[in-house]
Amino acid sequence: MEWLTRGGWMMYPILLCSVVALGVVLERFYVIFIRYAQFPQEQFDKLQDLVKKGDIKSAKEMLKQQSSAQKSIYLAMLNQQDEGSQNKAAELEGNSILFRLKERLSILSTIGSVTPLMGLLGTVFGMIDVFSKLAQMQGAANPGMLADGIWQALLTTAAGMTIAIPVVLFYHFFNRHIENIIHQLQTTANILADQLSNIRSAKNAKNTATIDKNRDSK
Question: Of 82, 98, 147, 192, which residue is 20 to 30 A from 184 by alpha carbon distance?
Fold first, then answer.
């Protein structure tokens, strides 16, 4: 608190930025690592087995019991009957997931960029104040007073960088994990799409064979 007071008025907006950044970091941890946690591989294997058997109803029921919000993209694909609608639904749901994952990360980017500048600005104001007082003094300047004024002015720069460094690290850490989530979604969605396509092809082939058989019997 003493450093906060000595650093000048610019310390308060820097402190506010740190509180906002902490809130965003905690909220993103919940969203990215809990709400949108990567879909368990064993559950996806079970989903594949059900789809291969053509048991789409059981596959949907299994997905509805999952806690991961990523299940929405698989449900969107299973709810479509043709390939075009399926691809469109997967794309729309994937974009929606990506938006929710990246939501508010721009706040961290902004704080990581702005707080060092705020600290530097506070230091400039502090140095202006120090040298203004020195200019008003008569006689030799007191080195102790000069040193005291300078270190107080530098507090805002230190505070700004102290906030910016971890914020930038968290920003890149979150982005990297989001890339992993999106890569997993794209891979698994493509696998599921191929399986659904094979089921439709087999069904069409069966229907065609039935029609030909009925025609021959007539």
Answer: 82
